[in-house]
Amino acid sequence: MAGTVTSAGAAGASTGEARYRRIYVWQRPIRLFHWVNALAITALFSTGLYIASPVLTSTGEPYDNFVMGRVRQIHFVAAFVFAIAFMWRIYWFWFGNTYARSGFPYVWRLAWWKDLFRQAFDYLRLDFGHIHLGHNALAGLSYTIFIIALGWAQMFTGFAMYSESNPGGFFDGLVGWVLPLLGGSFRTHMWHHLFAWIFATFAIVHIYIVILDGRQYRNGLISSMIMGRKFVRVDDEDESG
Amino acid sequence: MSECPPSRPTTYDVLTQHGVSRRDFIKFCTVTAAALGLEPTMAGKIAHALQTKPRIPVLWLHGLECTCCSESFIRSSHPLVGDVVLNMISLDYDDTLQAAAGHQVEEIRKQIIKDYPGEYILAVEGNAPTKDGGVYCTIAGEAFTDILLETAEHAKYVVAWGSCASNGCVQAAHPNPTGAVPVKELIHDKPIVNVPGCPPIAEVMTGLLTHLLTFDRLPELDREGRPKVFYGQRIHDKCYRRSFFDAGQFVEEWDDAGARKGWCLYKMGCRGPTTYNSCSTFKWNDGVSFPIGSGHGCIGCSEANFWDNGPFYERLSAVPIPGVESTPEQVGKVLAIAAGGAAAAHAVSVAIKKAKDGKDADSKGDAGAAQA
Q: Please, what is the average pLDDT of chain B?
């Protein structure tokens, strides 16, 4: 087992029989990334809903109000936060501990596929057997699709639309080609909006699974994303990975 | 005045023949320089070019189209003299405008190709249907596709007038029964300028021709082959209602208070934020108005696929799921509700299993689930 064991045999389980060890899994940058991401996506989704369908109407003269302008500003700032955190996470994939890479879809490895199906069937059959310290294959795959792939899609479409306020500028050169590729700016808006809803769908499933998983395995999953340490039963240790 | 042989008079020669004064001519040059975004001193260069260069022969072809581009063009108002533009170029072939008819006309086209190879401008209004050998548009017994390719072979520049020629427009909209394709998909070896719009603004059309005539090269084009000077910005970015957008003041119904106050038409489906054109700068009909100025949203007529982007009064286009007219919002809500429902159902089954396990094996305790 890789990872740093910081305190062994400390906490007993509620039954008083099983013995747990605390293992440092999520390093600080990973935890920071997770919560920055959560906040940024929440901000992006809620401001995005307003931008697409502005329900608040301000009264008075336009020079007294800047509602849409401010909401768009928050959206853009959150987008830059998301993008920078995203790039940082890519860096940490290479320079973090082994768990920082545990979510990678190792599609060429038979063990990865076995783990994927075992985890999926475990959830479906309500049969909770195997404990992972890093990401299991199913979790890793879902983050790869719903955070990494979707994140790239949102950044490309989002910054392409952002570039439209300054044609010929830096972002136009960087991602402006996305607009004609998707059939114009109008359709790019549609894709960006649809992808945002997939984020929302993912968030629902993610939060549910995390609560479920943490409850069933007694591994301190939720607190691990705050404190960094997961619990593993001493007699399960040979199984973990 | 002319340095050209009498057979090929300059624009200025023709203008003076038509009684245009020197003063009006210089005015036209100044206005055109301003419209092209050039520095004031360039007006002199335009005047010089129009006085020294022979008029460019222009072959103006009409394919599948509605002639709104021609209608717009002949109403150009900024060139102060009504017919200045028609005199500026040597419009040798335009089956809509010319007096000659029938075989005579086709002879002229072939003669120009022979006499001025590599010198004439091919202006294309409309596009070419490619299905079934191009039978859906024939002129004088010939398929328009063939006429287009034949004429383009020796052209100096190709100007794609309007949305039809630039990006397909209505006849190329789904399901495109005639296989109509924009000019850029048929002609690959010539410099093409796309001038989209349904129709393009008259001053944009004359401005482009003046640029070609004056500088003898294409203006700076953007990624989609449109002149940057006219298509460099979104309508939204120069819209006089932009302040209402930023303030969050939107028209909700066509007859509400906001509509009367001239608030932003964003929620009524205005395509201004996604449309590149000069409408909010030049306006139409001698600067009288433009759609948003008249209280209706932009329909994005100069953008590719604007017919296929869903209703003109919707903010977001439909999700392209075959057979389903869904907005992203609806698809997203279904997905989110499905995910929430699945999570809830799963949670309930976990609870049921827990209850059962509890009855079966009380002694296993909490940690039992992890060992199964």
A: 85
Q: In angstroms, rounded to a whole number, what is the distance separating the alpha carbons of residues B69 and B164?
A: 10
Task: Identify the domain containing residue B57 by its residue range.
Answer: 11-231
Region B230-255: mean pLDDT is: 93
Structure tokens at A195: 């992808």
For residues A44 and A36, give the distance between their C-alpha atoms in angstroms, rounded to a whole number: 12
Q: What domains appear along chain A, each with residue ranges and CATH number?
A: 4-239 (1.20.950.20)
Q: What is the largest CA-CA distance in chain B?
A: 112
Give residue A17's pLDDT band: very low, low, confident or very high (50, 70, 90). low
- Number of domains into which chain B is organized: 3
Q: Are residues B64 and B181 in the same domain?
A: yes
**Domain stops at, among B231, B262, B284:** B231
User: Do residue B78 and residue B176 come from a single domain?
Assistant: yes
Question: Cα–Cα distance between A125 and A129 in angstroms, integer?
Answer: 11
Domain boundary among B208, B231, B254: B231
Cβ contact, residue pair B329, A168, below 8 Å: no
Question: Does residue B196 lie within any of the structural domains?
Answer: yes
Coil, strand or helix at A229: strand
- CA dist., res. B84 & res. A233, Å (int): 89
| Cα–Cα distance for residue pair B364/A72, rounded to 1 Å | 55
| pLDDT tens per residue across span B186-216 | 999 999 999 999 999 988 888 888 888 878 8
Question: Cα angle vertex A25, ends A19, A28, to 5°?
Answer: 135
Nearest to B349 among A58, A126, A129 (CB): A126
Q: Which residues of A touch B303 (CB under 8 A)?
A: 184-186
- Tokens 């919707």 sit at which residue? B314
- Please tell me if residue B304 touches chain A, with a CB cutoff of 8 Å: yes
Q: Is the pLDDT of residue B248 over 80?
A: yes
Dump pLDDT digits (tens) for B74-87.
776 655 434 555 66
Q: Would you say residue B7 has pLDDT above 90?
A: no
ipTM over 0.95: no
- B163: CATH: 3.40.50.700
Radius of gyration of chain A (CA): 21
Q: How far apart are CA B114 and CA B59, in angstroms?
A: 12
Residue B101: phi, psi to the nearest 5?
-145, 165
Task: Mark yes or no for CB contact B233/A167 under 8 Å.
Answer: yes
Which tens digits make up the pLDDT trace of A163-175?
998 888 899 999 9
User: pLDDT at residue B357 above 70?
Assistant: yes
